Amino acid sequence: MSDSPGTDASDLLAAADAPEPDQTDGDGAGAGDEQRELAAAERLTSAPREEPAEAENVVVGGEPVGIGLVGWLRWGWRQLTSMRIALILLFLLSLAAVPGSIVPQTSASQINVDNFHTNHKLLSPIFDKLNMFDVYGSWWFSAIYLLLFISLLGCIIPRTWQFVGVLRAKPPAAPRHLVRLPVYATWRTSADADAVLAASESLLRRRRFRASRSAGTGGAGGDSVTSEKGYLREVGNLLFHISLIALLIAFAVTKLFGGMGTVVVVDGKGFANNVSMYDDFFPSAFYTANNLDPFSFTLNSFTATYQTSGDQFGTPRTYSADITYQSGDSGTSKTGVIHVNDPLKIGSSNVYLTAHGYAPIVKVTNAAGKVIFDGPTVCLPQDANVTSLCAIKIADGYTTKTGSTTQLGFSGFFAPTQSPSTSSGPQSVFPALDNPELFLTVYHGDLGVDSGIPQSVYSLDLTHMTQYKIEGQPLTAALVPGGGLKLPDGGQLTYVGTTQWVNFTIAHNPGTSAALISAILAILGLIGSLFIQRRRIWVRAVTGPDGSTTVEVAGLARSESARIAEELADIALALQDTAPADTPDEGAVSDDGSDESDAPLADLTSSKD
Asked: Which end of the chain has less Cβ packing within 10 Å, N or C?
């Protein structure tokens, strides 16, 4: 991608090399050489030069003829690899990533996606068709970053080749009129011209300039030293763009060779890294069930702390999951702690803690007193205080006091810290388990679990269910731990207590390290391209008819900056040791009658606007 200097270097150098109004070249023999030198001096960037656009139509035999397929392909390629299109694609990529931070993503938390489906019945089907729940794996996001990859590649290859050519070439010769450059200093000295140039070249090399001797241009007479510095600016520019390409490649590698799955584990329960154990599994083209790392773990405990006062009352402070895990076939158990944004690495997989909630433990008996269900039920959090949606499904084993069989469904809410207000309904006022209460509504009939149609575990399908009623009123209950609810047909539900669950995401992302390194290098390259100044300094020493030497020092930078004037002043002052400015004779009188001994020795920092 091409860029242009902050100051118009081409105009400045053209003016510096243009002849005086009364000067003419007798036969114009040096015009071609002068133009080539000027073109070399203008090259303050290694960006590829823009080729002139082709004519849209060519007239043959009086009839306009189109540019043809090859012409259109060439035009399309030039547009795709232009800076304008690359910036547009980069903006579109940033814009396309916005939904990934607003809409819940399956790669981050399937539970949040399920919750979105539950609460947004109208938007969910539209978002599903647009791949909004998997933004970074969608076709439209992939198309944008693929085009950006091609655009950057088409820019960098010719630019790198040209930059190598610039590094191998000598710095451009000094322009004819150094006095016309923005920063200029001159003085007369009795030192030999060759000694001045040798000292100048040595001084510039010590200051890490690329320096070389060159003959004067256009009969200007004498030799000059030409030098250049600041190539790291272009190195930083290229590093930034190459790092962007590496970042896109790392992203593609992660999508092609990575995979992930999510699983909810209740406190005290375990998980084995097998597809059948996942709640959701997302393979990729080259990462399938056969590539899963062999390991298992048990959730020993989950600990959460919250802010208990102030404006951030109820805000989570720490989440930590203590686990015991076994990796490979060794069978050796190890312990580990997983925090939010601090995963545990097992083999080539990272285990992330992505969500947590509560699971009330309930026991259900039928009319004969037989326990048909006894265990925790995972409830889905609905707000920051973990007011949760619950659904308990009893599909088998329930018989009424008349001996008939039916299926039971309990739908309701769980509040870990129920509001003391009796009129608030199910509403938690704090996320910790301080005053738990379970609110249930009871149904019987056909749950629809045998229909083969997938169902959410957090809600009931009431199509073929009937609500229990007592004296015409729906049967509901608000239970505290240890409380129970008797059913009209002889059964009973008991709220035993509450445990916690944790949602883990197990991810295999082979490109994350490369992406991090690429991002760091891109930032370093950007810093270099913004703060390193590309500049050139010329020193010319010409011996006059009277035997004295006129020293000229001039500089040019790619952007407006006072640093080039300061640097040139330092160089001019350093040259005073070898080429001291001549001191006018004491008492000498100039043409205007003033005492020349009062004149300054040299103008070392003059800068022309």
From this structure: C
